[in-house]
Amino acid sequence: MERSPGEGPSPSPMDQPSAPSDPTDQPPAAHAKLDPGSGGQPAGPGAAGEALAVLTSFGRRLLVLIPVYLAGAVGLSVGFVLFGLALYLGWRRVRDEKERSLRAARQLLDDEEQLTAKTLYMSHRELPAWVSFPDVEKAEWLNKIVAQVWPFLGQYMEKLLAETVAPAVRGSNPHLQTFTFTRVELGEKPLRIIGVKVHPGQRKEQILLDLNISYVGDVQIDVEVKKYFCKAGVKGMQLHGVLRVILEPLIGDLPIVGAVSMFFIRRPTLDINWTGMTNLLDIPGLSSLSDTMIMDSIAAFLVLPNRLLVPLVPDLQDVAQLRSPLPRGIIRIHLLAARGLSSKDKYVKGLIEGKSDPYALVRLGTQTFCSRVIDEELNPQWGETYEVMVHEVPGQEIEVEVFDKDPDKDDFLGRMKLDVGKVLQAGVLDDWFPLQGGQGQVHLRLEWLSLLSDAEKLEQVLQWNRGVSSRPEPPSAAILVVYLDRAQDLPMVTSELYPPQLKKGNKEPNPMVQLSIQDVTQESKAVYSTNCPVWEEAFRFFLQDPQSQELDVQVKDDSRALTLGALTLPLARLLTAPELTLDQWFQLSSSGPNSRLYIKLVMRILYLDSSEICFPTVPGSPGAWDVDSESPQRGSSVDAPPRPCHTTPDSQFGTEHVLRIHVLEAQDLIAKDRFLGGLVKGKSDPYVKLKLAGRSFRSHVVREDLNPRWNEVFEVIVTSVPGQELEVEVFDKDLDKDDFLGRCKVSLTTVLNSGFLDEWLTLEDVPSGRLHLRLERLTPRPTAAELEEVLQVNSLIQTQKSVELAAALLSVYMERAEDLPLRKGTKPPNPYATLTVGDTSHKTKTVSQTSAPVWDESASFLIRKPHTESLELQVRGEGTGLLGSLSLPLSELLVADQLCLDRWFTLSSGQGQVLLRAQLGILVSQHSGVEAHSHSYSHSSSSLSEEPELWGGPPHITSSAPELRQRLTHVDSPLEAPAGPLGQVKLTVWYYSEERKLVSIVHGCRALRQNGRDPPDPYVSLLLLPDKNRGTKRKTSQKKRTLSPEFNERFEWELPLDEALRRKLDVSVKSNSSFMSRERELLGKVQLDLAETDLSQGVARWYDLMDDKDKGSS
Q1: Would you say residue 975 lies in a domain?
Q2: In this structure, are 162 and 297 located in the same domain?
Q3: Which residues form the C2 domain (predicted)?
């Protein structure tokens, strides 16, 4: 056995040669050595040898003084010398540690048996895996084979590097044309396999091996770039890890095994000893950085989910599936909290003990997530959710590391590890896990999501996800795996295809592919100089809603400046494909006539199958009918149950609320804009992002303001599922990446219970800033008595930047259909239904091969104009087109009992009926002055004059406003005077003192005069006198051929109240005289003196139109 230099027994004093008086000055050359030419006798140190040793020692010390001399010669500070000395000492320390580690590892491998026996009763940590674990076997026979093959492997590596790698490096860059390998030696220390573990019973068509490998080699690889006299290399390295080898598929012919797959389950540990110019990588800081970069390269090639596949037989089927198999499942990790963490922050040089600023790193294989930092807290609450793909069970581990955030180096607080097999066995694992290497516990909830190959439970999953609050991303409903195989006949790269600034000749492209789903983009490798590239790569995406998302594929040249082809694929197409899989050629658009792309797309639905998670009940066809259906007629056992007369939705149907979110303003936001390279500090361009119930909203951007005012209103349909939260984030709009300005969240339960919330919320994760939100729960009411009041109030509180507010909520339950037409007269269709109101649609599931489908699905819609909108229903067959349609005006619901229709409806095709329930609920705001119990229309005109003056702001923010209710009902009183000869215009004019704006709402006109044969095309023009310029002019849209147009359009003028009282509002109703003429026909006008108008009331009134000579107001 070989021994390290420090291992042998110490020589006696008689064996030591004579030495100088100072033993520390003894140079290495003065030690007794064996002279090869002296027959093995030690050469005695003569006078010449001693003199040479003294001169060598003196010369080395003189070389050390040269940097000091040069620093003084050029006038540098002594600080540079001290810095260089510290850098050298640090490099020397790292270097010595690496050499010591290599010597210890080699000694362990050389004397494994002796050291194992010596440490058998001392420490299990020093034992190899085959001693510690009974199911891990020692494979010395395999190590002997590797040792025998090792020299020949070295010859192959030398040939590979010299003939393949070196030419590729020289061709990659003109500066590396003189690159060459000057030395390639794998050394005498081969790779060792410490233990082998076989996993039985996984799958019959595969063999699963785990090899615990350890390489502590004296490898030496030197490279040189002669042009720049640059030399670098590696001399010695360590690599330790668990390599999984999968032999599959097993076949009934030689060589029995079809392919071999190899990968590291976890990132292996790596330690490299550099030489030459790469010695700089041993400097503290650069050492760990270089090793990390190399490990990232190895991970991108050989660490899960990446793997190396070696086919052993030709024409192997499903190579892509073997190279990138589907995940075994998905684990949803809820990082909830931690408790009892150790305090790491110290103040006043350790005299005062602080707390910690903890954050957590969650890791599974190459998938890593970092939580937010909780300042000054030993019991942090994170409440974050991550989703990871699990590829191998057993083997992979969930690892959570907790750190204390510091300005320099973060302090370690502890870690925990858990095998994913335990999560698979439990389904849902919710527990506190102790932290190793520190103190405290971390609270995790782990959910195993199975992968379903059909879309039957997709609606159930989506419905559940809508009620789950998840940060930083919403929960996923499915995953998509894209196998990118190849392309054919891509267009050649010509100079005409490039922009003018890029001069390119005609050549074959270097194609690469970008795949995008929403804001997630992944890129393939580039294949050079071919228009028929082969990629054979796999990409994985999480999907929030497969019914509405699309996969965008862009084939580009590697410069990204030229697009060679494009493809957009709606993922809803996969939902109807067999096993949610498409495997085919796709024609590329914006490309050549024969350009196409071969890809395989596999979707899987994520389903949590656990008794602890209860999905909302979905009614089924059996037992969902009337009581009579449970006891069929006794005459025959095959008698069909009677047809139901009404729908039977579950108890949750129609219980939704509408949450009205009013984003008002913010204060004290942090400034993110910098100019002139950061020398000049600017402000921010803030906007707000809202997330709730699976929907996202975004406000407009306010430029250059740290105290912005948005005044926008958003509405979202919500349920009473507990645990939902409104997530609010503020960002600074930039050209590249928007800067984070803070976040806050509001529990939806609090708003649903109280009904109203008006608060300033402090922004989290930023030094300063707060946000003003006003939240109101609107509960639908099954009565149309207050609809007109709601419409009037909505027009008053409507903000300029917001969409029109909803006046009602429509809930539709689609139960079934019958007697649908057959395909080609004989085959039953695969029907599904689409429900549409305005620009919002809902698609039901597809029921296979039946003319009497049962859907049992519900949908809700926000209704802004119940009098004019309608519910559009279409029943379609998959691949057969339209089977029937139905249009239900919502005005029919307004006159129905309880605003509800529940019956069979005949489709317009004449064949087929659908059973559905449609119910309308009026959204009455309790904080806008409308009260449900006030329906009186007999208020006298004196009630208007008795109201107190309300100059403090708009009506919707007053605390007690019965006056507004009286005003609204008074306006629509049947005692109003009839219209004049020219007709009337309905206006609301009031002053919004909070925003210093004059607001006018043009509701509509009635009984306009018809001068010609055809009705006019009216519009309304407003002018704020005495100014007649474009700055004060406003105009509505034009309505075609009507004498009673409805506009409901809002206009604003920014000016002080005293100035508004000095103005007059000129309102003109006009019509185009002809198609070719620019002349406008005046139908009538009215002029309002704002000094004589009560601008505090916001009353909608009808005004008689006059001709141009008489412009007084009514």
Answers
A1: no
A2: yes
A3: 312-433, 454-590, 637-761, 787-909, 981-1103
pLDDT, tens only, 717-775? 988 777 788 999 999 988 888 889 999 999 888 888 888 888 999 999 899 999 999 89
Cα–Cα dist 630/637, whole Å: 13
Reply yes or no on whether the pLDDT at 402 is more than 90.
yes
With both helix axes pointing from N to C terminus, report the angle between 47-73 and 78-110 in degrees, rounded to the nearest 10. Answer: 140
Same domain (yes/no): 485, 434 = no
441 and 490 both lie in a single domain:
no
The answer to whether residue 141 scores a pLDDT higher than 80 is yes
Q: What is the C-alpha separation between 1100 and 707, in angstroms, rounded?
A: 34
pLDDT at 624 over 60: no
Q: What is the pLDDT of residues 93-111, one digit of tens each?
A: 777 777 777 677 666 666 6
Residue 604: name the closest of 853, 325, 396, 318 by CA: 325
Please state, in angstroms and as integers, the Cα–Cα distance from residue 539 to each residue in 311, 542, 553, 883, 1096, following that order.
21, 10, 12, 38, 61
How many Å apart are CA 551 and CA 440, to the nearest integer?
44
What's the rounded mean pLDDT across residues 1036-1048? 88
- Spatial CA neighbour of 143 closest among 114, 115, 116, 112: 112
Q: What are phi and psi of 85, to 5 degrees?
A: -65, -40
Band (pLDDT 50/70/90 cuts) for residue 1110 is low
Upper half-sphere CA count for residue 866 (Cβ side, 13 Å): 26
Q: Which domain, by its residues, includes 845?
A: 808-924
Does residue 714 sit within a domain?
yes
d(CA 25, CA 13): 18
Give the per-residue pLDDT at 598. Answer: 92
Closest CA to 551 of 542, 559, 560: 542
3-state SS, 479-502, equals EEEEEEEEEECCCCECHHHCCCCC
Average pLDDT over residues 874-883: 85
Alpha-helical (H) ranges within 26-136 are: 47-73, 78-110, 112-118, 129-132
Angstrom distance (rounded) from CA 316 to CA 175 = 42
Three-class secondary structure assignment of 37-48: HHCCCECCCCHH
Residue 730 in domain? yes
CATH of the domain at 995: 2.60.40.150
Six token digits for residue 187: 């050394």
| pLDDT for residue 478 | 93
Spatial distance between the Cα atoms of 944 and 963, rounded to a whole number of angstroms: 8
For residues 838 and 713, membership in a common domain is answered with: no
Residue type, 194: I
Is residue 647 within 8 A of residue 813, CB to CB? The reply is yes
Distance CA 680, CA 309 (A): 55
More confident position, 7 or 678: 678
Q: From the centroid of its chain, how far is CA 199?
A: 36
pLDDT digit string, tens, across residues 534-567: 988 889 999 988 988 999 999 998 876 788 999 9
- Reading the block at residue 593, the tokens are 């006539």
- Residue 165, SS3? helix
pLDDT for res 12: 39
Alpha-carbon distance of 585 to 597, in angstroms, equals 6
- R_g of the chain computed on alpha carbons: 40
Q: Are residues 540 and 678 in the same domain?
A: no
Residues 1047 and 1071 in one domain: yes
Residue 469 counted as domain residue: no
Residue (of 125, 124, 139, 117) closest to 196 by Cα position: 139
User: How much is the pTM?
Assistant: 0.44
Q: Which of 582, 760, 734, 583 is nearest to 663 (CA)?
A: 760
Q: How far is it, in rounded angstroms, from Cα 155 to Cα 886?
A: 78
More confident residue, 946 or 1017: 1017
3-class secondary-structure state, position 660: strand
Comparing C-alpha atoms, which of 931, 804, 825 is closest to residue 868? 804
